[in-house]
């Protein structure tokens, strides 16, 4: 529950930026550009956070494997909170000109670094506390922070907008949800500081298995397995960010849907995503996660074929079906991708190794997805190019997952040094 609380707050900060980039930042920080170019510029600053995430993953992963999981996760939460709070205080372009987008990008980098240390660390922290037979369930709780953070961000965004009205909210009220980050992070810290250190890391330290350069050691898993793991998880990130971020700007600017309607629909879909993760992780613990992951990858590919055609009808009921479908299908693979990545690496280097894979997939998938989708939309004039982009990346991930699971047979032991075999708990 502590890792869930922490990841929810970190993703709240991150998704708050995504929602604001889709609906607000083009006017506040890029007013001299056309609406299409301003949206593309706003999404490019959104992508900057993903570029910064590997740096955070490398730094926090190194120290997480060297000094412990708990301390690094506390620092990552503080860093994210500082970045988000200060974004709410940046003057607009009309006030300070060029420096407004510069400060926005700088604080977005801080956000990215903070989140880069969170994703892998929270998953392995929870997973390493898991009792036998519940590894996927425990590893799924930090994954719930992704839709949980989106729901929290959108609810606060909607409530603030409803109370203030569109004009005041666009002018300055959008800052309030960012400034609230300070309060929410303080609550998160109280919860996170009560968590004990990972039992697995305590044993690593007791057995003198801490290595000097954990990242280099983690790469000894081998390029084929590393590359296939990265490919297997990249589609989930891409599809999720098109669903959560790009849909808001596309639906409101090109299809005429009401902004509030889109935010509410995405929020309800994210709540469905949140609620179903424990169900899917229990199935994975009972029946194995590999078949479920491959089936989920195929389901996402098929739904991407139908997603934009449903939205493009302009029918609100069909749009809700499209969005709720995403909320139901995305968690099938998302809930276990963290445990798949973590199980790739030995216990004493898994923070570093997992961070590389997780953040690499986030850049190739989620970070670039809204910007690529906007560029394809502007160049082609329709959503067809975006659909083919999603289908293509889903096909690559599905092929990567099949190849990965053939490379590493079901039940194969984790690549853990002999003294640490007892820490791994086996693979599902």
Automatic annotation (TrEMBL):
Key words, A-Z:
Cell membrane, Membrane, Transmembrane, Transmembrane helix, Transport
Q: Where are the transmembrane segments?
A: 40-60, 72-90, 96-116, 137-160, 172-195, 226-249, 261-280, 292-311, 317-336, 356-376, 388-408
Membrane topology per the entry is: Multi-pass membrane protein
Which SUPFAM superfamilies does the record match to this protein? MFS general substrate transporter
Q: What is its main location?
A: membrane
**Superkingdom to which the source organism belongs:** Bacteria
Reply yes or no: does the keyword Transmembrane helix apply.
yes
Annotated protein name in UniProt: MFS transporter
Residue ranges constituting the Major facilitator superfamily (MFS) profile domain according to the UniProt record: 1-412
Write out the annotated subcellular location. Answer: Cell membrane
């Amino acid at each position: 529950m502590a890792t869930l609380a922490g990841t929810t707050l970190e993703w709240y900060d991150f998704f708050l930026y995504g929602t604001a980039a889709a609906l607000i930042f083009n006017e506040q920080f890029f007013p001299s550009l056309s609406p299409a170019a301003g949206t593309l510029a706003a999404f490019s600053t959104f992508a900057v956070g993903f570029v910064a995430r590997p740096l955070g993953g490398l730094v926090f992963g190194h120290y997480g494997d060297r000094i412990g999981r708990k301390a690094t996760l506390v620092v990552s939460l503080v860093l994210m909170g500082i970045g988000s709070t200060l974004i709410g205080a940046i003057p607009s372009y009309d006030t300070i000109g060029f420096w407004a987008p510069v400060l926005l990008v700088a604080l977005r980098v801080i956000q990215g670094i903070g989140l880069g240390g969170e994703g892998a660390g929270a998953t392995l922290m929870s997973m390493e506390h898991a009792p036998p037979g519940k590894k996927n369930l425990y590893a799924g709780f930090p994954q719930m922070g992704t839709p949980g953070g989106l729901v929290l961000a959108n609810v606060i965004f909607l409530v603030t907008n409803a109370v203030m009205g569109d004009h005041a909210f666009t002018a300055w009220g959008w800052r309030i949800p960012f400034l609230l980050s300070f309060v929410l992070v303080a609550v998160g810290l109280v919860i996170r500081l009560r968590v004990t250190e990972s039992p697995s890391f305590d044993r690593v330290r007791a057995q003198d298995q801490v290595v000097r350069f954990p990242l280099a050691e983690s790469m000894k898993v081998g390029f084929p397995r590393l590359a296939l793991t990265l490919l297997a998880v990249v589609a989930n990130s891409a599809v999720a960010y098109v669903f959560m971020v790009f849909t808001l700007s596309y639906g409101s600017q090109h299809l005429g849907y009401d902004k509030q309607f889109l935010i509410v629909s995405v929020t309800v879909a994210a709540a469905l995503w949140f609620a179903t993760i424990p169900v899917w992780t229990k199935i994975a613990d009972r029946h194995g996660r590999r078949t479920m992951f491959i089936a989920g990858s195929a389901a996402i590919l098929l739904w991407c074929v139908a997603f934009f055609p449903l939205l493009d009808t302009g029918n609100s009921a069909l749009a809700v079906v499209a969005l709720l479908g995403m909320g139901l299908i995305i968690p099938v693979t998302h809930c276990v991708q963290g445990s798949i990545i973590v199980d790739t690496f030995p216990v004493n280097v898994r923070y570093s190794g997992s961070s590389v894979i997780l953040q690499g997939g986030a850049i190739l998938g989620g970070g670039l997805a809204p910007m690529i989708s906007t560029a394809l939309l502007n160049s082609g004039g329709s959503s067809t190019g975006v659909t083919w982009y999603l289908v293509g990346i889903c096909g690559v991930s599905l092929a990567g997952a099949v190849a990965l699971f053939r490379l590493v047979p079901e039940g194969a032991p984790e690549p853990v040094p002999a003294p640490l075999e007892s820490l791994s708990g086996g693979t599902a």
